[in-house]
């Protein structure tokens, strides 16, 4: 059956209500099983030996003494792994285990599996590695210089003409835009040009990477793992290790945060390889130090932004030169930054150029709306400077230039109905905007954009004989989606919320589902759930028709029951879902609904944030006084968790804006691989984060849903940057705006 | 690894003195256990001092207050008399870690861990506190500022254990205060800190001690800073003099927590603010 995914403006009974999450009790009582909570008989402990150097050749790697240690059951180096030279997965495997070179501090060079942790620790000490240190580079601008140490010798810049003949740390140049920016700047009354920098941050999920891997000699394997996408882990791990996809069963545990960092494999393929070699189950759990050094943080960046405007506020041209480091492996992060930079605005002339640059740092992974917050910091700070230069209110300037339905986006497509204008209007009218500020306090605002994604999804609905319903999903629940999916399922079937039990299937129990990323969970799994429920309803109507011995066309489904329509059927009392389910054995067997879909048309998402800060002019310390998030959700299925996403993104953005950063020493080693000196906000650092949900329906979803998970982290760097600059009386251009940076800026401004 | 839990300080001292390998005292364990977990320490012997009665005492005598080496931060916080006499010392200790850590962490542990950024230490030094050091054969009493000699290093000989901290008796109008700068609001380590203790006579500062943290290899007692406010009512000029003296006494490093310039500047700022609080607590106007 094909289903129409168009928005229908359905009236809801349950969707939009605030319900408790079905996984809540387990999580608050400690019963929930996370990545490190699984155990198997005879399991071994895996530990990794990691590079102490930022960049070095591995001259000799001798594991023989470790292998001889009693209790050691397997040792793995790159020599024990399938050779993917010239293959598509080479980079992925080489990041999991170094080949001839280590490319960053913390890069794995060997792994051991032993009967206990103490033995594994001893074994690591017995592995002898001799390194030849190579020059390293960790700064993005330094890495782009022609005399910079080469991170990889076989990378030639893509996206430039003519094709380069010399290798470079610049792996890709991506250009977006339209119009004629030179002409645009010529029309401008005011031009602001400014450079910005942001430091590298980590998603900071509380649960480290952890898994339990088991591969038997028959080629069958199982992986229990904390992940945002167990199907993707299956695809990648089976390809890396040469296993049959169907024979590797991957189960996603409860997840203690991912935010993009659990979309890639790190220790998991190696745990599987160790298990295969040892013929025993292997448990691997990263330490926090390893998480910081050897998982996938987001980029540090450097950029130049130029915006020209007329005195009436019309932006005549915008250009962005955006340089993002991808770590030691190619990525598309600079490209994404360039795509998102000007996406909030309706511009006649715009150009953004993104550079993807290699450095000796860990491979960059996605972090909540990856790449967008940094570009927004540059652009939204510059927009504020334009507003000041022409003496216009910064919100009014943004409203005047906001993209709308029909606007050609700076990255190419033409927008449908979008929420940037409404979020800005809501910001303008919000009481927060008129609240009085005290001495040393400042207010800032900024807006932000994210694409959102749909992708491959499927869901099963199985109706039990007692009328309760199992909803089987393959999209990992990272933010309360089981509650939303249960609400949608109950809404469609016309039954109470607590009659639905949602489960996340393992990879052998349900077809492929894309990773929970790109804010796709509620949009795509919601769609598959609606359609699967409608399939189940059709089946139940058939069963009712059969029971009544009338044509199915005379049966309708209303409020959880089948009703016979038409005067001749007046004598037939309705059949409830429970009654139909109870008779299923006699009417054709179990009742189920199923749907598989490529969910296209995830509507783009916009947000506007307002922030008040107080800066201590003598210490440079900043306190967030008040914070408001206004975002378009399309349709909020469970408003509590939509607000939670808004607040969570803002909280992470506050940490990023003020204190979080990877600090590298001159030796190229990470100085602060722990939560003591990598400062995510603690509870008392944050004010109550106020939220306002706007609902501008996505025309491509039956309920109008847009993803909400990521956009909320896009505006904070800029909103806080604008607020701090207003409070301190000096423009801040370097994130994080840590106390030493703020105090230095204040002092430099005073001297000037 | 051996674990011992003796019931006298002398016994504890002898156990440590007699150990050939690496031996550690376990008080709250909030530093030691973290070090062991992360592989920074791998002791052969751990001597738990929490079962020694003298280590658990808070005693007020004619000469002052004696605080046992195993007394936790939360016990200091629930002692009203002590908080009234030495609010700065108690506050400084209570800044360490979380509520859970406060249930374990001790001032003496903080002192012997010998971090330049230890929160309780500048407050103790400003207070003029003394440490009672017990060895296998003899006892001695040492000013707190003589204990730490550098990051992670102390003047204690092998087998010497600090049994208690003695805070002097409070007389007349007096007050102390401790402030630290951290980028967050809690759960952090001082980037720079200042403890000030003073007494008043006829509304003027009669005696003062000013001590800075995290601006050198050990906490720094700044006599010039104290001199700058003695005889004053903490007018702007003497405060500025004090702040300048503090900045001049700084010998910090630039690291992941802060720069030389930042620490030097903010040391003076914090000393001024701490002095104002101490002055007010002493009843100064």
UniProtKB/TrEMBL annotation, chain A:
Q: Which GO terms describe its molecular function?
A: iron ion binding; oxidoreductase activity
The parts of the chain that form a coiled coil are: none
Q: Does the keyword Oxidoreductase apply?
A: yes
- Name the source's superkingdom: Bacteria
State the organism named in the record: OM182 bacterium
Keywords attached to this entry: Molybdenum, Oxidoreductase
Q: Which InterPro entries match?
A: Ald_Oxase/Xan_DH_a/b (IPR000674), Ald_Oxase/Xan_DH_a/b_sf (IPR036856), Ald_Oxase/xanthine_DH-like (IPR016208), AldOxase/xan_DH_MoCoBD1 (IPR008274), AldOxase/xan_DH_MoCoBD2 (IPR046867), AldOxase/xan_DH_Mopterin-bd_sf (IPR037165)
Family per record: Belongs to the xanthine dehydrogenase family.
Q: What is this protein called?
A: Xanthine dehydrogenase family protein molybdopterin-binding subunit
Any one Pfam family here would be Ald_Xan_dh_C
Q: Which residues form the Aldehyde oxidase/xanthine dehydrogenase a/b hammerhead domain?
A: 29-135
Keyword Isomerase assigned: no
UniProtKB/TrEMBL annotation, chain B:
Q: Which GO terms describe its molecular function?
A: FAD binding; oxidoreductase activity
Q: Name one Pfam family in it.
A: CO_deh_flav_C
Domain FAD-binding PCMH-type as annotated: residue spans: 1-172
Supply the alphabetized keyword list.
FAD, Flavoprotein, Oxidoreductase
Q: Does the keyword Flavoprotein apply?
A: yes
**SUPFAM superfamilies per the record?**
CO dehydrogenase flavoprotein C-terminal domain-like, FAD-binding/transporter-associated domain-like
Q: Which residues form a coiled coil?
A: none
Task: Indicate what this protein is called per its UniProt record.
Answer: Xanthine dehydrogenase family protein subunit M
The top of its lineage is: Bacteria, Pseudomonadati, Pseudomonadota, Gammaproteobacteria, OMG group
């Amino acid at each position: 059956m094909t289903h129409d995914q168009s928005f229908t403006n359905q009236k809801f009974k349950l969707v939009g209500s605030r319900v408790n999450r079905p996984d809540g009790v387990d999580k608050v009582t400690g019963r929930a099983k996370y990545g490190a909570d699984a155990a198997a008989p005879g399991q071994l402990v895996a530990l990794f030996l990691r590079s102490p150097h930022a960049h070095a050749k591995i001259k000799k790697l001798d594991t023989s003494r470790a292998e001889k240690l009693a209790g050691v059951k397997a040792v793995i180096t790159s020599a024990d792994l399938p050779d993917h030279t010239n293959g598509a997965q080479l980079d992925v495997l080489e990041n999991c285990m170094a080949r001839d070179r280590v490319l960053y501090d913390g890069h794995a060079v060997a792994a051991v599996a032993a009967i206990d942790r103490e033995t594994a620790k001893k074994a690591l000490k017995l592995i002898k590695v001799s390194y030849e240190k190579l020059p390293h580079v960790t700064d993005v601008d330094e890495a782009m210089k022609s005399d910079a140490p080469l991170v990889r010798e076989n990378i030639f810049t893509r996206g430039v003409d003519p094709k380069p003949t010399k290798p470079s740390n610049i792996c890709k140049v991506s250009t977006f835009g339209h119009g004629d920016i030179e002409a645009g700047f010529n029309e401008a009354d005011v031009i602001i040009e400014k450079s910005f920098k942001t430091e590298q941050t980590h998603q900071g999920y509380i649960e480290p990477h952890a898994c339990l891997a088991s591969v038997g000699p028959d080629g069958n394997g199982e992986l229990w793992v904390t992940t945002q996408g167990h199907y993707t882990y299956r695809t990648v791990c089976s390809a890396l290790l040469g296993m049959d996809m169907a024979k590797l069963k991957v189960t996603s545990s409860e997840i203690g945060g991912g935010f993009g960092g659990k979309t890639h494999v790190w220790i998991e393929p190696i745990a599987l390889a160790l298990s295969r070699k040892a013929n025993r189950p292997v448990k691997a759990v990263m330490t926090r130090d390893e998480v910081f050094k050897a998982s996938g943080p987001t980029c540090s960046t450097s950029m130049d932004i130029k915006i020209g405007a007329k005195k009436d506020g019309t932006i005549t041209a915008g250009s962005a030169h955006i340089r993002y480091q991808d770590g030691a492996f190619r990525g598309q992060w600079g490209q994404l930054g360039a795509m998102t930079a000007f996406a909030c605005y309706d511009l006649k002339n715009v150009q953004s150029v993104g550079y993807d640059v290699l450095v000796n740092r860990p491979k960059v992974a996605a972090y909540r709306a990856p790449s967008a917050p940094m570009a927004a910091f540059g652009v939204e700070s510059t927009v504020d400077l334009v507003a000041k230069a022409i003496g216009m209110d910064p919100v009014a300037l943004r409203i005047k230039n906001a993209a709308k339905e029909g606007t050609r986006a700076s990255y190419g497509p033409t927008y449908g109905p979008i929420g940037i204008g409404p979020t800005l209007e809501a910001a303008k009218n919000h009481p927060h905007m008129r609240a009085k500020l005290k001495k040393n306090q400042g207010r800032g605002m900024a807006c932000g954009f994210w694409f959102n994604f749909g992708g491959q999804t499927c869901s099963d609905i199985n109706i039990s004989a007692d009328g309760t319903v199992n909803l089987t999903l393959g999209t990992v629940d990272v933010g309360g989606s089981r509650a939303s999916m249960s609400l949608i399922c109950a809404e469609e079937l016309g039954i109470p919320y607590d009659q639905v039990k949602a489960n996340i299937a393992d990879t052998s129990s349900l077809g492929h589902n894309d990773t929970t990323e790109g804010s796709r969970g509620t949009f795509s799994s919601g769609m598959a759930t609606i359609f699967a429920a409608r399939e189940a309803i059709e089946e139940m109507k058939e069963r009712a028709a059969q029971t009544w011995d009338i044509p199915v066309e005379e049966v309708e489904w209303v409020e959880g029951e089948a009703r016979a329509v038409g005067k001749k059927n007046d004598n037939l009392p309705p059949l409830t879902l429970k009654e139909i389910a109870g008779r299923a054995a006699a009417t054709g067997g179990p009742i189920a609904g199923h749907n598989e879909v490529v969910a296209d048309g995830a509507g783009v998402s916009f947000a506007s944030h307002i922030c008040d800060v107080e800066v201590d002019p003598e210490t440079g310390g900043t306190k967030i006084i008040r914070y408001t998030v206004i975002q378009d959700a399309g349709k909020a299925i469970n408003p509590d968790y939509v607000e939670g996403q808004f607040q969570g993104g803002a909280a992470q953005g506050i940490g990023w804006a003020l204190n979080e950063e990877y600090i590298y020493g001159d030796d190229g080693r990470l100085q602060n691989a722990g939560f003591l000196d990598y400062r995510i906000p603690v509870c008392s650092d944050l004010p109550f984060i106020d939220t306002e949900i706007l609902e501008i329906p996505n025309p491509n979803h039956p309920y109008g849903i847009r993803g909400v998970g990521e956009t909320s982290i896009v505006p904070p760097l800029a909103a806080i940057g604008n607020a701090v600059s207003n409070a301190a009386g000096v423009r801040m251009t370097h994130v994080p705006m840590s106390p030493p940076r703020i105090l230095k800026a204040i002092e430099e401004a005073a001297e000037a | 690894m051996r674990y011992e839990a003796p019931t006298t300080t002398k016994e504890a001292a002898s156990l440590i003195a007699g150990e050939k390998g690496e031996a550690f005292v376990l008080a709250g364990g909030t530093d030691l256990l973290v070090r062991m977990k992360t592989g920074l320490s791998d002791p052969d012997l751990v001597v738990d001092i929490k079962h020694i009665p003298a280590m658990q005492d808070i005693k007020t005598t004619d000469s002052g207050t004696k605080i046992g080496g195993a007394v936790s931060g939360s016990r200091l916080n629930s002692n009203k008399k002590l908080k009234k006499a030495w609010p700065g010392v108690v506050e400084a200790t209570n800044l360490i870690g979380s509520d859970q850590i406060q249930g374990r962490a001790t001032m003496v542990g903080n002192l012997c861990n010998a971090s330049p950024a230890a929160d309780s230490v500048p407050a103790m030094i400003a207070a003029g506190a003394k440490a009672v050091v017990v060895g296998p054969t003899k006892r001695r009493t040492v000013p707190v500022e003589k204990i730490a000699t550098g990051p992670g290093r102390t003047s204690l000989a092998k087998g010497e254990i600090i049994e208690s901290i003695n805070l002097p008796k409070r007389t007349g109008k007096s007050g102390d205060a401790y402030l630290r700068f951290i980028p967050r609001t809690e759960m952090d380590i001082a980037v720079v800190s200042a403890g000030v203790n003073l007494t008043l006579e006829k509304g003027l500062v009669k005696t003062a001690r000013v001590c800075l943290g995290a601006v050198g290899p050990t906490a720094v007692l700044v006599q010039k800073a104290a001199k700058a406010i003695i005889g004053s009512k903490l007018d702007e000029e003497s405060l500025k003099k004090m702040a300048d003296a503090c900045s001049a006494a700084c010998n910090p490093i630039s690291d992941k927590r802060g720069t030389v310039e930042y620490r030097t500047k903010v040391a003076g700022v914090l000393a001024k603010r701490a002095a104002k609080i101490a002055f007010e607590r002493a009843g100064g106007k």
